[in-house]
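Q: Two folds, back to back.
A: First:
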Amino acid sequence: MSGIAEVARRAGVSKSTASRALGGTGYVSDDTRSRVEAAAAEIGYVPSTNAVSLATGKTQNIGVVMPYLNRWFFAEVLEGIQEVLLERGLDLTLYDAKPASPGRARIFGDYLARSRFDGLIAVGLEPDHHELEQLVKIGRPVVSVVGSGDATSVVEIDDDYAARRATDHLIALGHRRIAFLGGQTDRHWAQVDRRRFGGYQAAMMDAGLGDAIRHIESDVTLPGGYAAAVDALSDTHNPCTAVVASCDEVAIGAIIAARRLGVQVPAQLSVIGIDDHEYAEMFSLTTLQQSPREQGRVAVELLLAQIADPDGPRSAVRMKARLIVRSSTAAIDARASTAATDGGLDIPSFTG
């Protein structure tokens, strides 16, 4: 099999230069890198990860740990991470740390401690104090997608801003009875839901609507949003004309519930979410768009910078979500406003 020596000979460079060009370590000019890559492609040479590791002291591997693999946000973040790693010729080790699972305990207590990677990206883990200590103690750079305090660099959207912007959009349309769907107060709030609820509260207070603040608890899932909306819309004594959902899945669940109850969206109920989920356009959902894939890409760039300079400062990148207006929100109907003031919307009973 042709090796690095043959690549170097064809490119007209030394073996060490060829190794640096293919391994992405050290400075090599763009012209030299192109010649080396062309020579390697010509003979079908692929550098051994083990050889690169021996030469650089790096594993050429990045660890990624996340609680869910089958949810839209996490899958999108993972795709963004993988895109950059493939571009850089780096490997990926994925850890599926489902909440409250035996596997999660083994991951934090054993697998991560083995440090078979140059750095770690933790996605939406909401680690407790003990787990966060374990992440930091592995002795490798760590970047979080969705923040976990000041112990790591972090990439996320500005959740407070997103919820404020969503609520302000509804207020500008004339809505005053606006409920927030999502998050549960009888247990530790997910930090994202807590910040989004805080943004909603702040917008309502700023508009002089503090007395109308209403939180309807739900799991942050489509069924959770469905159940919360059924509860909200069945309450004719305290009706709302609009809802801010903690995420698009909750918002879509609310739209489905409204349809089954015979409540017209947006004529009788405006619904806004946060995410721009892949199903958002299908349901004509107005939403605050975040880009999980871009967050994944940025996380890799931050991590590689920390690997190159372990003593460098930690970074916090907070992206602004962008309002995407579709047809699930509209100016409040005068009849709906009057009905709300007079004691409730005309909503048929829900029978399943």
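A: Second:
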Amino acid sequence: MIAIYILLFILIAFFIITNLPVFGRLPKGLRLEKIQHQANYRDGALQNQSITLMQPEGVSFFKVLKAFLFEKHLNKTPDKALHFIKPNLNGSPKSGAPEITWFGHSSYLIKVEGLRILVDPVFSKTPSPFSFIGSKAFLGTDVVKAEEFKNIDILLITHDHYDHLDYNSILKIAPQVKTIVTSLGVGEHLEKWGVKADKINELCWNESLTLFNSLKLTAVPARHFTGRKFKRNQTLWSAFVLRTENYQLFLGGDSGYDTHFAKIGEEFGPFDLALLECGQYNAYWPYIHMFPEETVQAAIDLKAKVLMPVHWGKFSLAMHPWNEPIKRVVLAAAAKQLPLVTPKLGETIILNEYLPTENWWLEE
């Protein structure tokens, strides 16, 4: 009898915990119907364009977990606090060219043609449902707070993983933004958290939206996956093409390397700048994140004039040294003669005017 009570208690606790708001909510109703009518919806889930295994054949989830927990990995975090430049978040642009401020990982602010676009803002101490679980933000990277962002025109969310869609950051930022653009299905999480439906715009792959009469966003395919609890790929994952009257940027989100980059480059390129992930890779999951050399090739495929590597510099979500991604990208870009921009955390680049390339991570 005691065993039954213990089991019942565990089940009740599990139900309560997994239904906390931080986990979001799976799509339902008309939103679910739209997802189920997508060309890449099969077998109860959204699919990548190419067959995409979470791990290579012969590599189990438990093997990956064992490597995380028990194998020794050196320099996964910096030895000291990283240098962070305190940016002017709410000031006017200094130039007519796009200005981009990177906050670490995949969070950055774009100022272009009088508009302010905030991408994948994660300002919690850890990218997980609970603050006591998972990688902690590197020392020195917590200078900017979510509540500091005012008058954001567009909040862009590429997909629903915790290191891109942060519950606590959204609660503080969303009330201050004019409109939200995200991948199909992610709006269900946002509505669960109290965001008004009329503020949310969800895009399917190859669907476009023009905002403020001058800025066009198009969702394009990526090679990744989604899910905040146990059921994967119930919401879409996307990269975005951002086009203004004078500039075009590629906002990559998360993606493994595949032929979609070349197809996007042919259809939408060239790009003035591509922001692409370069970190959190491993041979145990080679299809859902890019190795740094693949990041460089993806930028070339996209016909990008300049590459800005992101998805590194704040959290350690893989088993490589914290600054290995950027070291490898620099070498690969030099070999391919691809222009690179490597701002410090909090530093603002100005396209065609100020593109810093200092190897600041070697001094940390």
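Q: And?
A: Helices lie at 2-18, 29-36, 61-70, 167-173, 187-192, 260-268, 292-301, 324-336.
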